Amino acid sequence: xxxxxxxxxxxxxxxxxxxxxxxxxxxxxxxxxxxxxxxxxxxxxxxxxxxxxxxxxxxxxxxxxxxxxxxxxxxxxxxxxxxxxxxxxxxxxxxxxxxxxxxxxxxxxxxxxxxxxxxxxxxxxxxxxxxxxxxxxxxxxxxxxxxxxxxxxxxxxxxxxxxxxxxxxxxxxxxxxxxxxxxxxxxxxxxxxxxxxxxxxxxxxxxxxxxxxxxxxxxxxxxxxxxxxxxxxxxxxxxxxxxxxxxxxxxxxxxxxxxxxxxxxxxxxx
Length: 270
Prior knowledge:
Number of strands: 15
Order of helices and strands: HHHEEEEEEEEEEHHEEEEE
Strand content: 15-25%
């Protein structure tokens, strides 16, 4: 037990309370200062879960355990460091998951071949977009308020290509043009691939070296079922230079360079 206690950041308090009679004793319990007092569904004490099991008793409920908590002798500095480390590990895992989800999006360089006003919806354009497939994609975009029609013709764009097709007032839309917008959503600007980027090229988040290790793009059904776009979108922003990023860390890239917004900085991307 001494070795176990030493292994847990100097927390050496034990108990032989009769509540644990019939179990191997003594047990290291969590402290009352709420740094390690949560009981997990795995019957383990949080932050000590890889070392100290909670006794298996018919009375072993979170409520009873909380009533029997003993005092922990670890210093506040040590405890704070342990909590910070645990939080950092958790955040690191979350960031990794977000990045993996982002790179399962099938984001492509595209070129608008033709664009026109939707006949049944005043706020929508309809575009035919070359994304390297046999035929251009038909995509509907709610950009009428923000971008004049003539500025869409023959324009290079960034396309989210693995969304499920949607019926937009009688026109089936097979993707989404990605754009930056300010907080008030009064200014909207299409993302721009760098010069030399080829229609159909897949876009990714990360370093130049990560291009060849991307996961397969998720299917439209997976995107919808797992709500991958809803998970990733809040993490997309342009930085202070207008470069499109994931979490202001991982640049949105093509083989020719990063994707940008020409004039919207520190802006949302959708």
